[in-house]
């Protein structure tokens, strides 16, 4: 049986949500409508998802972090036998500050589910938060940990993969997500903070696939460019 694949970017996936995909969450005195992961997974199959990957790491003894990647195949354009591929990335963590009760006993599963939901919501352009992103705790507004810490290696690898799939140079990403002063001092993606890396992935996720540019020596070129600017001052 062949499944019907809809255009990922041309479809309004918010309108494709069905009864039961969206539920009301109550935490304390707050009430919030959220989308369930199962609904996002169903839409992703209709959108042509072909591959998923999750990298799990433990940057601290009390924290599990997940980086979830999903690849979709876009419809072939006229004259083509195969469409382009586009990749989206979502990150999330599970720690004592954002997970309580029985779910705290399964930190890896919680982190993976949150990252998958965030990744699919980005890919599908779903405007409401997922139940997994809101978390299993009192206080829906709590932030995930260590936004100013140095970005993990898996996040940097995810950014590089997104750059490759979007045909975007690393220098362009840095210039888009950092202010001028900060961008002038960054030579490597590994120097990004967790918050900056998440912002970079968010910007890249919003870019449609493009013809790939020749890679060259991107980092060397970046260093040479900034050194030339500093030498001219």
Task: Give a topology summary.
Layout: E1 22-27, E2 30-35, H1 37-46, E3 49-60, E4 63-73, E5 85-95, H2 107-124, H3 131-134, H4 153-166, H5 170-177, H6 180-183, H7 194-205, H8 218-231
Antiparallel strand pairs: 1-2, 3-4, 4-5
Short descriptors:
single chain, 233 residues, alpha+beta, 2 domains, three-stranded antiparallel β-sheet, two-stranded antiparallel ribbon, 8 helices, 5 strands, 20% strand
What does this structure look like?
The protein is α+β, with helices and mostly antiparallel strands. It folds into 2 domains: 1-145, no CATH class; 149-233, no CATH class. The chain is built from 8 helices and 5 strands, in the order E-E-H-E-E-E-H-H-H-H-H-H-H. It has a 3-stranded antiparallel β-sheet. It has a two-stranded antiparallel ribbon with strand order 1-2. Helix 1 packs across helix 2 and helix 5 (170-177) crosses helix 7 (194-205). The protein starts with 21 loop residues before the first strand and ends with a helix.
């Amino acid at each position: 049986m062949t499944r019907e694949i809809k255009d990922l970017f041309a479809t309004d996936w918010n309108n494709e949500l069905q009864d039961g995909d969206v539920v009301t969450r109550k935490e304390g005195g707050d009430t919030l409508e959220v989308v369930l992961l199962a609904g996002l997974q169903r839409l992703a199959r209709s959108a042509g998802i072909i591959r998923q990957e999750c990298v799990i790491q433990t940057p601290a003894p009390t924290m599990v972090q997940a980086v979830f990647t999903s690849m979709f195949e876009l419809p072939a354009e006229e004259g083509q036998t195969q469409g382009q591929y586009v990749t989206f990335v979502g990150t999330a963590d599970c720690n004592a500050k954002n997970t309580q009760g029985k779910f705290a006993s399964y930190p890896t599963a919680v982190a993976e589910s949150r990252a998958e939901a965030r990744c699919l919501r980005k890919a599908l352009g779903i405007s409401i938060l997922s139940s997994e992103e809101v978390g299993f705790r009192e206080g829906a507004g709590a932030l995930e940990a260590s936004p100013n810490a140095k970005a993990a290696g898996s996040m940097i690898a995810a950014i590089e993969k997104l750059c490759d799939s979007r045909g975007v140079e690393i220098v362009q990403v840095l210039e888009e997500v950092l202010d001028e002063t900060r961008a002038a001092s960054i030579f490597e993606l590994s120097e990004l903070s967790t918050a900056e890396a998440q912002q970079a992935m968010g910007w890249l996720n919003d870019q449609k696939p493009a013809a790939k540019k020749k890679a060259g020596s991107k980092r060397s070129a970046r260093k040479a460019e900034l050194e030339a600017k500093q030498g001219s001052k």
